[in-house]
Amino acid sequence: MTHTPSIKICIIEDDALILKSLQQVLNNAEGYSVTGTFFSAEAALENLKEHHPDVLLLDIDLPGMSGIEAIPKLHKLQPELNIVMLTVHEESEIVFSALRQGAVGYLVKGSNSKFLLQGISEVFDGGAPMSPSIARQVIASFTMSKETSLSDRELEVLQKLSNGTNNKQIAEDLFVSTNTVKAHIKNIYKKLHVHSRAEAVSKAIKKGWI
Predict the structure, then answer these.
(1) Distance CA 95, CA 135 (A)
(2) What is the pLDDT of residue 92?
(3) Which residue has the higher pLDDT, 120 or 88?
(4) Same domain, 98 and 21
C-alpha cells in the first residue's frame, strides 16, 4: 500500500484561538500536516525556510507587517510557495491587492472545515481556491472593467477618489508611488472623457460602477 505524503502547511495568524483551531482541523485530517505556525510575518520570514511548506495560510491583519506586505517577501524566500489568504475581509480592494501581490487563493475565516481542506488541496493541485463571495467580486470586477474599459487598478483608484482619499493615501493603500496614482487618474479622465475628480466620481456613480 502506497502512502500518500501529507500536504505541508504553515500558518501565519496572530489570534491564538484561531491558530489552535486551524492546527487541530488540519492535523486531524488525513493528508494534511501543519509544519510551522507564526504569530507575525516577521517571525515567518526568519524561520520559514526551515519548514519548507507546500501551502501557506496567511492572515492579513497582523501586528507589524501586514499579510499583503509580506507576500512578495515570502515569495522571495520560497518562489514556488502557494500563499492562501485567510481573513475576515471581503472588501474587493483588499482581495485584489492580495492577489496582485502573488496570493493564489482567498478563503474567509469561519469557512467550514470541509471547505478549508478542499481549498488547500485545490491550491496544492494548481488551482486557485476562493470562497463564493470572493469569487463573485472577482467576476463582477472583470465585468465592470469590460463595461468601462478601465483596468482593475483604475477602478480601485476611482473607488478611493469617491471616498475623498488623497493621492498620497491612495499610493500607500495600493503600495505604489504617487506618480503612479497620478498616471492612473490621468487615464481615468481620458477614458471617461472628464476633466476633474468630481466629474469622474459623478459619472461612475451614475453608471453604477462604484
Answers:
(1) 10
(2) 65
(3) 120
(4) yes
